[in-house]
Amino acid sequence: MEKRILVLAGVLLTGILAFGTTIQFWTCPFVSQPENFLAPLVEQFTAQTGIKVEISVVSYNDAVVKYQAAIAAGEAPDIMYLTESRFLPLVKFGNALEPLDKYLSDDLRSRFARPDLLDQYAATAGGSLYVVPIFFVTYLGAVNVDILQAAGVPEDLIAKMTDPNQTYTWDDLLHIAKLVTKDLDGDGKVDQWLYAYPGGANWTHPFLLWYWGAGGSPTLLTDEGKPAFDTEATRLALSFLLKLKEEGLMPPGVGSLDAGDAIDLFTAEKTAFINNVWPSNSLKIWPEQFPSLNYRLVYPPVGPTGARTTYFGSGLLAIARQSKHKDEAWKFIEFLLSDDAQAYVAQSYYFPVTGKLPEEFANDPRVKMYYDVLSYAIPEPMHPAMARWKAIYNSEVQAVLIGQKTPEEAAADMQRRAEQALEAYQ
């Protein structure tokens, strides 16, 4: 009896201590003004638990450095927002993150749309789970239906592109490219093309969509742990992009376009195909801003080695090992994974990792397409050198597109530079 009273007293004391606690949550701007977007959730969480949440916003570019500085000063936030390429540097930074395995119940784990991703996060970090995703984004492609139909692209080919149970290939894209690339106004200059590769963009994904589609390593590493860039996949991807450019099937200047330029060319109906369509663009921005744009979402093409892939990124939350409020921090993370919170997060057009959607999304076939590709989507590679590798492979693709290097030369230089960058972390 006395033991039960002591246990009950301990539970009550824990509840009293949690009530009125304030946890610090540092997040990157996954939406404009995330502190305002998350405010209703924070208010609801505080009403339920008595735990307050203070949100600070740090830029994606500065996040890792700011987190490391705060940790070194003993002033780490309780919760940190990370991405696949940003969490491993903190894992390696003096045991900075708290292992979360003990917090994650089997029931909660089973509710994830892709529970295997949790195992990938753990395996990459040496076997312990340091991050939990709360939402994800992935890419579909899109085609301009008016352009394809006017150019005589067969309807059965368009149907293949939009059917999850059928496939189309890079050769099909090349065939479409030759049909749609035209001089529309008769001035002797081409003004409509297939696709605009953002060669000037320093983003993670543009090259990877083609590299993975050519059968490249999902982790960008060989089985021996070396960079996997001087490979047939790299040469195939670079050669295909170069072919599109040299045959005039992409607009001039692709070597210096950024991602926004490539999107603008599609929405201006200058290109017929785009392969990196965010949910927010396809579901909200384009219908509102370009009501006459007759586009259709399509699945990724099959590459020359039979690979069909797309990019997967997620918003990850971690708890600082030096946090004095770990249990309260986990309560907030667990709250964000509740059905109501996940449905609310979907309004940002980052999709719930549990698949819990508001009704208007659950009945939208375009949303289903984004979930369809999860089975073969590849997470952003997770290792400390990723930020430097991104700059390396983007610059080498640009060198090919502006005629400075052949695909073979760029693949070899990509490998050499990636090996040098990796050595700095070993």
Q: In total, how many domains does the architecture comprise?
A: 2
Tertiary shape: globular
Instruction: Count every beta strand, where a strand is a DSSP E run of 2 or more residues.
Output: 10
What is the H/E order? HEHHEHEHHHEEHHHHHHEHEEHHEHHEHH
Distance between the termini: 56 Å
Would you tell me the overall average pLDDT? 91
Detail the poorly predicted runs: 1-17
Beta-strand fraction estimate: 5-15%
Structure description:
- The protein is built from 20 helices and 10 strands.
- The longest helix has 17 residues, at 2-18.
- The strands form 2 sheets. Strands 1, 2, 3, 4, 8, 9 and 10 form a 7-stranded mixed β-sheet that branches.
- The chain is 46% helix and 12% strand.
Nutshell version of this structure?
With 426 residues, this protein is of the alpha/beta class. 46% of the residues lie in helices and 12% in strands.
Which features characterize this protein?
46% helix, 20 helices, alpha/beta, single chain, seven-stranded mixed β-sheet, 426 residues, D-Maltodextrin-Binding Protein, domain 2
Write the SSE topology.
Elements (H helix, E strand, L loop, with lengths): L1 H17 L3 E6 L6 H4 L1 H11 L2 E6 L5 H10 L6 E4 L1 H8 L14 H5 L5 H9 L7 E7 L1 E5 H6 L4 H7 L8 H11 L24 H9 L18 H15 L12 H9 L5 E5 L1 H11 L5 E4 L11 E10 L6 H11 L2 H7 L5 E2 L6 H4 L2 H8 L4 E3 L6 H16 L5 H17 L3
Parallel strand pairs: 1-2, 1-3, 8-10
Antiparallel strand pairs: 3-8, 4-8, 4-9, 5-6, 5-7
